[in-house]
Predict the 3D structure of the following.
Amino acid sequence: MLPESLVHKPDFRQAVRRWEAFWQGEMIDRPCLVVTAPKEGATSAPHPAYMAGHTGCYREVVEQYDRWAQGIWFGAEAMPFLEPSFGPDVFAAFVGAELKYDTATSWAVPFVEDWESVLPLDLTGEDWKRMKDYVQTASEFAKGRFLIGMLDLHSNMDCLASIRNPQRLCMDVLDCPELVDRAMQNVQKLYPKVFEEVYRAGSMANQGCIGWTPVYSPKRFAVTQCDFICMLGPEQARRFVIPALAEEAAYLDHCVYHYDGPGALKHLDDILAIADIDCIQWVEGAGNPPLIEWMDLLKKIQAAGKSVEVRCPAEQIPIFHKNLLPDRVVYITNTATQKQAEELIIWLKANS
């Protein structure tokens, strides 16, 4: 049973209703909007650093998040949530890879020298137990206050690239594709197990799901992706990646696909043909034109029946709003003051 409200989101149920409409491709009186701002009359602690819990200081991290959230106004459909993270290669760590850390990120140390000797893979990594402990500790503290986010999983072929090495995996696709098939089938069987155990540890049946991107669903939700797909040609992607993405999307009730960079656009039609992908998050990538210059791409995605996630400065929202279907978009932004955020909500209602 979902709560009526949260300490840091008193209008939680109202926001849930708008998210439910979004997933149905509907709009109540304005597009879905995730907007945060400093709360009037409140002070805020610093937000916990990315991967702050990887040293095991789980309680300290969730307490710091709670102090930060006390000073933030979570407007419209914004939800307060803590993202437990050991970095982007966590799925690889779950199947046995060692993670190396610096101040900004972490990465997996490849360990596969020969696929035959490591298959089948299983959830044997010490970080798997540590992550479940982290999520459960966070969930127990957060109950009634804020949500716990689903992990940034980087599953499917991204996992294989991390444990093998991307260049060597590219050669495997050419030299031993049957072994890559087996490895993919193996990893895909682990996806539901990982999701369900994190889902239970985070008490997400009683709060709903939110990903590392701040999109929420009262049902099973995650961000799906395959950054490695940019290394493949269309036929290779159709063999190794597209079926895996379709399987993940079908397993989830709702999902956002994280579409990373122009190098992957050769696969756009195949991605859009996956019926269970609900929404696309287009990330233009470093050195490329900003999101506002990709309007034609966003329109094409919407024309295919998908919603789009638009993360942009608040002052750009009227431009996107003029060009995009309002019932198939979620805007993600922040403002300098709570008043500015409230005025943005009023503007969207008046102009929708």
The chain has one domain: 12-350. The radius of gyration is 20 Å. The mean pLDDT is 97. The first helix runs from residue 12 to 23.
